[in-house]
Amino acid sequence: MSTLHDGLFGAGEAARLFSDGAEIRAMLVVEGALAQVQGRLGVIPETAAQAIHRASLEVTLDPAALAGPAAQNGVPVPGLVAAFRAAMGAPEHAQFVHWGATSQDIQDTGLMLRLRQALAEAEAQTRATAEALARLAEAHAELPMAARTYGQVATPTSFGAVAAGWGWPLLDLLEEVEALRASSLWVSLSGAAGTGAALGPRAAETRARLAEALGLTDPGRSWHADRGPVLRLADWAARLAAALAKMGQDMIALTQTGIGEVRLGATGGSSTMPQKANPVGPSALVALAGQARAQQAALHAAASPLGQRDGAAWFGEWIALPRLWLSALAALGHARTLAEGIEPVPEAMAAGLGLAHGGAYAEALSFALARRMPRPEAQAEAKRLAQLAAAAGRTLAEMARAAHPDLDPGTFEAAAQLGQAPAEARAFAARVRAGA
């Protein structure tokens, strides 16, 4: 990641999960846990298992020293195993490192350890963002503003309902997390071609014990050529980025000149235009979601490996997966900051309801008129009055009251036309408070 742009697109401390050091450390943890399990099962000598496990926690390997072997072998594990054995300085024990496993077992399991942490970080940040949106939704459940469809003023809604609309998809994603952990955070241990032959007669038990030791799920089978677990985790992250991008798009629209219905907690400036307060955070949300979707497509393109294991498909995964997760985590940082700092501008929202000559009340007018005439005629009359208002430079309310003096006064009052918006805003806030 660029140092220059890290504040804009960086994932903060979470980015370390996808660093070379974190990848190496995770693979050493797997090697150590595997040896420990095999020692307890009598697959390798207990003394060797203890030495390997202890060394896996103490040894530090230089990523630069492993780069050459990784390029030559097409995978970092052979170089890592060789360097780990050398660093142990006890060949009688080191010979049992990586016993019966294959490179993909170690790398995939190490990846799952890191993805578990990434998912936990994403869950925490998503929950904090939802909590900030819940406070907005509850505080402004009845603050009227114009809803917009196709970019045009539609009918009244409330800012609380808009905030809740940003938050509901986050709650849906949070509800999936526990099932996602069980269905996707898998241990991998099945040997060279997925048969576990070199692991011996206790291969299945070894895999189950390794899963238990690492806090992962034992899928009960080889998944070298089944990238479903990786895709499920990646798709969740991509959908999260997409949900945050919707919030970003709305904030960009609501801060446009001539609308200005919200104020962001932080904005960007121009190098030449002093008046500018650019929606930098919302724009980053949109850009990061685009990056996440692009990497998601790349992952799916690489999700059909050849045979029992495939280098090309695996390489594609290494390129795309970190970028996707880093994009989602970076977006969460922006989203939380925005949700905690955004403020509505009530006077601008009131002005927005008056745009298009008060056309936001046209639907309400058509239903008010339908109490005295057939619905099709009422719709036609409301449209006629809206066109007259536009032509005369007057408001729809003025034209309608002139033509139909006995109309219900609430027809043109935003607070009376919010429908279920306040209830949905409060329902969202209640669900967040309940820990959903």
From TrEMBL:
GO terms for molecular function: lyase activity. SUPFAM superfamilies: L-aspartase-like. Residues 357-429 form the Adenylosuccinate lyase C-terminal domain. It comes from the Bacteria. The keyword Lyase applies. Keywords: Lyase. Belongs to the class-II fumarase/aspartase family. This is Adenylosuccinate lyase family protein. It comes from Rhodosalinus halophilus.
